[in-house]
Amino acid sequence: MISLYQLKNKLNKQAKEFAELLEFPDLYAQGLWARGVYNCPHFSDTHKYLSEVFEKKKLDSILKHDSLKYLMINEYDDQEIIESLHKEIESMANRIESLMLVDIETLELVSVIYQVLGLPENAKFIVNTGADFRLEWRPYFDAFDDPLIVQYADLKVHGCYFRLIACKFPFEKLSLDDIRKYMYINHVNHNGEFEGCISEGNTFSKHVHWLVLTLELFSSGKVNKA
User: Fold this and answer.
1) With 70 as the cut, is the pLDDT of residue 177 above it?
2) Using alpha carbons only, what angle is made at residue 109 by residues 81 and 34, rounded to the nearest 5 degrees?
Protein backbone atom coordinates (compact mmCIF):
# COMPACT_ATOMS: atom_id res chain seq x y z
CA MET A 1 0.00 0.00 0.00
CA ILE A 2 1.33 3.41 -0.93
CA SER A 3 2.26 5.70 1.95
CA LEU A 4 1.70 9.38 2.59
CA TYR A 5 5.45 9.95 2.34
CA GLN A 6 5.57 8.28 -1.08
CA LEU A 7 2.72 10.38 -2.46
CA LYS A 8 4.14 13.64 -1.14
CA ASN A 9 7.57 12.72 -2.46
CA LYS A 10 6.03 11.89 -5.84
CA LEU A 11 4.25 15.23 -5.89
CA ASN A 12 7.49 17.07 -5.08
CA LYS A 13 9.37 15.20 -7.82
CA GLN A 14 6.65 16.04 -10.35
CA ALA A 15 6.92 19.74 -9.59
CA LYS A 16 10.72 19.51 -9.73
CA GLU A 17 10.69 17.76 -13.12
CA PHE A 18 8.12 20.26 -14.43
CA ALA A 19 10.46 23.08 -13.39
CA GLU A 20 13.47 21.45 -15.03
CA LEU A 21 11.71 20.68 -18.33
CA LEU A 22 10.49 24.25 -18.72
CA GLU A 23 13.50 25.85 -17.00
CA PHE A 24 11.34 27.55 -14.38
CA PRO A 25 12.28 28.44 -10.79
CA ASP A 26 11.12 25.70 -8.42
CA LEU A 27 8.64 27.78 -6.42
CA TYR A 28 7.12 29.27 -9.56
CA ALA A 29 6.78 25.80 -11.12
CA GLN A 30 5.17 24.42 -7.96
CA GLY A 31 2.40 27.02 -8.13
CA LEU A 32 1.76 26.39 -11.82
CA TRP A 33 1.73 22.63 -11.33
CA ALA A 34 -0.63 22.75 -8.35
CA ARG A 35 -3.12 25.11 -9.99
CA GLY A 36 -2.84 23.81 -13.54
CA VAL A 37 -2.81 20.04 -13.04
CA TYR A 38 -4.29 19.47 -9.58
CA ASN A 39 -6.54 22.54 -9.53
CA CYS A 40 -5.37 23.56 -6.05
CA PRO A 41 -4.80 27.25 -5.12
CA HIS A 42 -1.33 26.57 -3.70
CA PHE A 43 1.20 23.77 -3.79
CA SER A 44 0.97 23.46 0.01
CA ASP A 45 -2.76 22.76 -0.35
CA THR A 46 -2.02 19.53 -2.22
CA HIS A 47 0.18 18.35 0.66
CA LYS A 48 -2.44 19.38 3.19
CA TYR A 49 -5.18 17.44 1.38
CA LEU A 50 -3.02 14.31 1.22
CA SER A 51 -2.28 14.54 4.94
CA GLU A 52 -5.98 14.85 5.75
CA VAL A 53 -6.80 11.84 3.60
CA PHE A 54 -4.32 9.63 5.44
CA GLU A 55 -5.40 10.94 8.83
CA LYS A 56 -8.98 9.91 8.02
CA LYS A 57 -7.78 6.67 6.41
CA LYS A 58 -9.79 7.41 3.28
CA LEU A 59 -7.26 6.74 0.54
CA ASP A 60 -10.06 5.98 -1.93
CA SER A 61 -11.04 9.64 -1.83
CA ILE A 62 -7.87 10.46 -3.76
CA LEU A 63 -8.94 8.12 -6.55
CA LYS A 64 -12.32 9.85 -6.63
CA HIS A 65 -10.95 13.39 -6.50
CA ASP A 66 -11.49 15.34 -9.74
CA SER A 67 -7.83 16.33 -10.05
CA LEU A 68 -5.63 14.68 -7.42
CA LYS A 69 -6.56 11.26 -8.79
CA TYR A 70 -3.92 11.91 -11.48
CA LEU A 71 -1.29 11.54 -8.77
CA MET A 72 -2.26 7.85 -8.67
CA ILE A 73 -1.20 7.15 -12.27
CA ASN A 74 1.18 4.16 -12.32
CA GLU A 75 0.20 3.29 -8.74
CA TYR A 76 -3.06 1.37 -9.21
CA ASP A 77 -5.23 0.04 -12.02
CA ASP A 78 -5.13 3.45 -13.68
CA GLN A 79 -6.69 2.94 -17.12
CA GLU A 80 -9.83 4.87 -16.19
CA ILE A 81 -7.74 7.69 -14.72
CA ILE A 82 -5.58 7.87 -17.86
CA GLU A 83 -8.66 8.02 -20.08
CA SER A 84 -9.92 10.92 -17.96
CA LEU A 85 -6.53 12.60 -18.31
CA HIS A 86 -6.76 12.44 -22.10
CA LYS A 87 -9.99 14.43 -21.88
CA GLU A 88 -8.76 16.96 -19.33
CA ILE A 89 -5.12 17.50 -20.26
CA GLU A 90 -5.78 20.35 -22.69
CA SER A 91 -7.71 22.19 -19.97
CA MET A 92 -4.75 21.68 -17.63
CA ALA A 93 -2.40 23.12 -20.24
CA ASN A 94 -4.71 26.07 -20.80
CA ARG A 95 -4.82 26.82 -17.07
CA ILE A 96 -1.04 26.76 -16.87
CA GLU A 97 -0.73 28.89 -19.99
CA SER A 98 -3.09 31.50 -18.55
CA LEU A 99 -0.92 31.79 -15.42
CA MET A 100 2.49 31.97 -17.07
CA LEU A 101 4.56 35.06 -17.65
CA VAL A 102 6.27 33.53 -20.69
CA ASP A 103 4.82 32.27 -23.96
CA ILE A 104 4.87 28.49 -24.36
CA GLU A 105 2.69 26.67 -26.89
CA THR A 106 -0.19 24.57 -25.57
CA LEU A 107 1.03 21.43 -27.33
CA GLU A 108 4.40 21.69 -25.63
CA LEU A 109 2.68 22.01 -22.26
CA VAL A 110 0.49 18.98 -23.02
CA SER A 111 3.60 16.96 -23.86
CA VAL A 112 5.35 18.07 -20.66
CA ILE A 113 2.33 17.20 -18.51
CA TYR A 114 2.17 13.70 -19.98
CA GLN A 115 5.87 13.22 -19.35
CA VAL A 116 5.79 14.48 -15.76
CA LEU A 117 2.74 12.35 -14.92
CA GLY A 118 4.68 9.26 -15.95
CA LEU A 119 3.32 8.74 -19.47
CA PRO A 120 6.37 9.41 -21.68
CA GLU A 121 4.99 7.38 -24.59
CA ASN A 122 1.99 9.73 -24.83
CA ALA A 123 4.31 12.72 -24.72
CA LYS A 124 6.19 11.52 -27.82
CA PHE A 125 3.13 11.77 -30.04
CA ILE A 126 2.28 15.40 -29.28
CA VAL A 127 3.66 17.11 -32.35
CA ASN A 128 3.02 20.57 -33.73
CA THR A 129 3.54 20.50 -37.49
CA GLY A 130 3.03 24.23 -37.84
CA ALA A 131 0.41 23.53 -40.50
CA ASP A 132 -2.85 25.46 -40.53
CA PHE A 133 -5.52 23.43 -42.30
CA ARG A 134 -8.67 21.43 -41.68
CA LEU A 135 -9.31 17.92 -42.93
CA GLU A 136 -12.78 17.14 -44.23
CA TRP A 137 -13.47 13.60 -43.07
CA ARG A 138 -16.15 11.59 -44.91
CA PRO A 139 -17.46 8.01 -44.64
CA TYR A 140 -15.36 5.54 -46.64
CA PHE A 141 -18.17 2.96 -46.81
CA ASP A 142 -21.91 3.56 -46.66
CA ALA A 143 -22.93 0.06 -45.56
CA PHE A 144 -21.86 0.27 -41.93
CA ASP A 145 -24.13 0.52 -38.91
CA ASP A 146 -21.75 3.31 -37.90
CA PRO A 147 -20.85 5.27 -41.07
CA LEU A 148 -17.91 6.87 -39.27
CA ILE A 149 -16.12 3.59 -38.46
CA VAL A 150 -13.97 4.06 -41.57
CA GLN A 151 -13.41 7.59 -42.84
CA TYR A 152 -11.19 9.27 -45.41
CA ALA A 153 -9.82 12.74 -46.09
CA ASP A 154 -7.94 13.97 -49.15
CA LEU A 155 -4.91 16.20 -48.68
CA LYS A 156 -2.65 18.05 -51.12
CA VAL A 157 0.95 18.68 -50.07
CA HIS A 158 3.42 20.37 -52.42
CA GLY A 159 1.33 19.42 -55.42
CA CYS A 160 0.98 15.76 -54.41
CA TYR A 161 -2.37 14.30 -53.39
CA PHE A 162 -2.68 11.98 -50.41
CA ARG A 163 -5.66 10.05 -49.10
CA LEU A 164 -5.79 9.57 -45.35
CA ILE A 165 -7.91 6.65 -44.10
CA ALA A 166 -8.92 6.40 -40.45
CA CYS A 167 -10.47 3.36 -38.74
CA LYS A 168 -12.23 3.80 -35.41
CA PHE A 169 -12.10 1.15 -32.72
CA PRO A 170 -11.14 1.08 -29.00
CA PHE A 171 -7.42 1.40 -28.35
CA GLU A 172 -7.54 -1.55 -25.95
CA LYS A 173 -8.69 -3.73 -28.87
CA LEU A 174 -5.69 -2.79 -31.02
CA SER A 175 -4.31 -6.22 -31.85
CA LEU A 176 -3.85 -8.07 -35.10
CA ASP A 177 -6.15 -10.84 -33.86
CA ASP A 178 -9.03 -8.58 -32.86
CA ILE A 179 -9.33 -6.14 -35.77
CA ARG A 180 -11.47 -8.30 -38.07
CA LYS A 181 -13.67 -9.55 -35.23
CA TYR A 182 -14.36 -6.11 -33.76
CA MET A 183 -15.05 -4.30 -37.04
CA TYR A 184 -17.27 -7.02 -38.47
CA ILE A 185 -19.31 -7.85 -35.37
CA ASN A 186 -19.82 -4.35 -34.00
CA HIS A 187 -20.13 -2.14 -37.04
CA VAL A 188 -21.15 -4.01 -40.18
CA ASN A 189 -24.37 -5.47 -41.58
CA HIS A 190 -23.73 -9.09 -42.56
CA ASN A 191 -25.15 -9.10 -46.08
CA GLY A 192 -22.32 -10.48 -48.13
CA GLU A 193 -19.49 -8.27 -49.36
CA PHE A 194 -19.92 -4.61 -48.51
CA GLU A 195 -20.44 -2.17 -51.33
CA GLY A 196 -20.53 1.59 -51.28
CA CYS A 197 -16.79 2.26 -50.98
CA ILE A 198 -15.81 5.60 -52.51
CA SER A 199 -12.77 3.89 -54.12
CA GLU A 200 -13.99 1.89 -57.12
CA GLY A 201 -13.09 -1.78 -56.89
CA ASN A 202 -12.35 -1.63 -53.17
CA THR A 203 -14.27 -3.79 -50.73
CA PHE A 204 -14.45 -4.07 -46.98
CA SER A 205 -12.43 -7.29 -46.93
CA LYS A 206 -9.70 -5.57 -48.96
CA HIS A 207 -9.73 -2.69 -46.51
CA VAL A 208 -9.34 -4.99 -43.49
CA HIS A 209 -6.52 -6.86 -45.28
CA TRP A 210 -4.77 -3.55 -45.98
CA LEU A 211 -5.25 -2.45 -42.36
CA VAL A 212 -3.71 -5.64 -40.97
CA LEU A 213 -0.74 -5.43 -43.34
CA THR A 214 -0.21 -1.79 -42.39
CA LEU A 215 -0.19 -2.57 -38.67
CA GLU A 216 2.22 -5.44 -39.25
CA LEU A 217 4.50 -3.14 -41.24
CA PHE A 218 4.62 -0.37 -38.64
CA SER A 219 4.75 -2.65 -35.61
CA SER A 220 6.77 -5.56 -37.03
CA GLY A 221 3.86 -7.72 -35.91
CA LYS A 222 4.32 -6.64 -32.28
CA VAL A 223 0.96 -4.98 -31.69
CA ASN A 224 -0.25 -5.42 -28.09
CA LYS A 225 -2.65 -8.27 -27.46
CA ALA A 226 -6.07 -7.17 -26.20
Assistant:
1) no
2) 60
